[in-house]
Predict the structure.
Amino acid sequence: MIIKTEDIFPVLSINSNLFFTKNGDITLAYQLYSPEIFSLGETNIDDIHSDFNKFVAMLPQHTILHKQDVYLKKEFSGYMLPENSFLEKSTRRYFEGRKYLEHNSFLYITLSNLKSLNATYDISNFLNQRKDHKTDRQNVLNFTKEISSAISTLNSSQYLKTKPIAEDTLKELFLLYFNGFEMGSLVDIEFKPNFKIGSNYFNILALNNEENQGETISNSKVDLTKTTDRYTFYKFFTQSFGLDVNCNHIVNQILYIDDHLLHKSNLEKNIRDFNTYSDFSTGNKEGHKTLTNYMTEIVNDEKVKLCRGHFNVIYWTNQKHELASLDENFISKFRELDIFPYRGTYEDYIYFYLGCFPGNAGLIPREETFLTDIKQCSCYFNFVSNYKTDPKGIVFNERLFNIPVIVDIWDEPYRTKQVDSRNFAILAGTGGGKSYLENHIFRQLIEQDYSVVLADVGKSTEIISKLYKDKVAYIAYKEGQALGINPFKINYLEELTSYKTKNLSEFVFIHWKKANAPDENERVSMNKIIGEFYRDCPDRHAFPTFYNYIKKERNLLDKLEIRPEYFNTDEFLHVCSEYVSGIYDFLYEDGDYNDLLQGKQSVFFELSEALTNPDILSLMFLQIQDTADTKVWKEDAVRKILAYEEAAKLMKFDNVLRAIDYGAQTIRKYQGALGLVLQTIDNIPKNEVGTAIINNIHNFFVFEPKKGIESLKERLNLSPHDVNQLLSVRSNLTGEHRYTEFAHILGSKTRCLRLETSKECYYSYLSEFEDKIPIFNELEKGNTIEQAILNLIKL
């Protein structure tokens, strides 16, 4: 049997998101936005059902609620990804065309007249061209007002949001549905001998009778595919019909809110019938017992409202032989829930398929629905969806299909008060992937014109700095080589603020006093001398010239009215001479000291070789602070990151710990964020300072926690499901699609993400020296860094 689409198209008119159908019904259409898959624990699922049931309770009598979830096989298109840099282009090419399942969820809320609700339809109803059904204008106004109020209640949920579907979008959805979700011109629908639309073969399985339901219906159930002995995941009762099935399909969940008292009367009649015939079979006895218990529950609980429901799954493929395996797969999904699905004749296909067209749910025959109550019926509604992607941010990968998702860690979370600061921490054990992730994040921030000041330990960012040499200054301490930077250099005398003067004093005291703190008299004296130095010396400002200025100006203390006991000139000259003409004279070799920083947006300090020398490390750290003052604190219009790689090693030094604490508390005022790269959360001291640092970090990237899970739970105040997500983190470094996996904790929300990269990114993120040797060999041949990477990929 073939039906022409244009003959049965049911919509008479559309006005915004409200439309009229030929059967006299009125429907309001909304797109529903649900939480991400894997993001919910058992209590979250219960909360969602509670929110949804509050919404349903507000719907007027004679309302049909039709939730339609459409799952379509797609190929990833990289149009949403940036494509400017070498690595951006490689990422877009790498993921282009990757297959995934796209999910969209729609709510169709229909007001159906009493006649429609109580009619039993045959095929003629679907072909009926009558236009004499007229809807009372006042009924429409009352209906839209009540639905608007109910939708506002639903949108107040922490989890569920809706948006009216625009008129043009509705027209596209109608066309797609009747076209079997094929693009192009209208095609006919063939129901017999095969259910076929265009080039696709269809089938439908339904729950349409209360006797076919399982004994246990609940909001959620344990997700056995994700649960292990260490952690438990939960899912919605019918969630396995959604993203778990990688094929084109539609899940229809329909709830009919009609006459509760009439349903109650019919239920009482069924009980009497079962009782009358209970002697004829055990089934009748069990039916009588079950319905009697159900009736008792209804009588004792006035909140239980009877309704009717219908649940079906429509699925299709363009390969007829694949339909049998899809049948088997979906039947197994029903059986997991102890449900016996109904597979009907071609006439049933007509009712089910055409009745599930938006606004047509009132045409599904009453005998194709099951008697239930509203809370129980809502258990058949599934509320999880794909991973969400943001308009801008950092590109990672989602957990289901490994396709890219963009994660906004800067604007939206801060604007919506999901976080109060943009500070972040990356936590992973040795070899756990933290350097790889840090490179991935920092290089995208650099591409997006953030200013990144990084204290690196281990040369993790060496290759990235070469790739972005026009934007990044890479400064590494090496015995016998000048640092190449000079905190003394200023362009104008006005730059010598009180804050700059204090920083320079600290810088000089590190040379002179080493780890010993100067007294207040020495501090005041040093501030005075620095000011006089800049007034007397208009150019060539550097530590050696400052040293020689004090050496030459022997009456300097008298000139500034500084008593000799407040500033020991001989001691200063003797101790500091090793930085001018002694073992450290190479640090400040004469020249244009700030040449490395000119025109650079970001600065990476490599501190590996300085860790063994506390004096040099202190100097390097003050250089970092000075650069942060220039790059971070002063440039208000620039987004800034001040980050510490292997921060645990640096926080052992008290001055570094204090600086990190200060930065964590204040950097947000300067449009900035502090970043820490650590092995465990316990690398942050368990004291007042450590607690303050953690309280000011609202963005954590946590790799598989081999130890310290209890500390994470306690110090980050994680929920049970947050902990389950953390425990479920697993990386896969073998096979075609290799990835690292981590939990992303943003404010109070946790999600598991992956990082799968192109080969170009892989070679750019290498941090181990042995792994980088082939890159360096290629560079020695005269290749650019990009060409060196491409050459290695070809090998």
Summary: The longest strand covers residues 63-75. Residues 782 and 788 are 9 Å apart (CA to CA). Confidence is low (pLDDT under 50) at residues 114-135, 279-284. The first helix runs from residue 5 to 8.
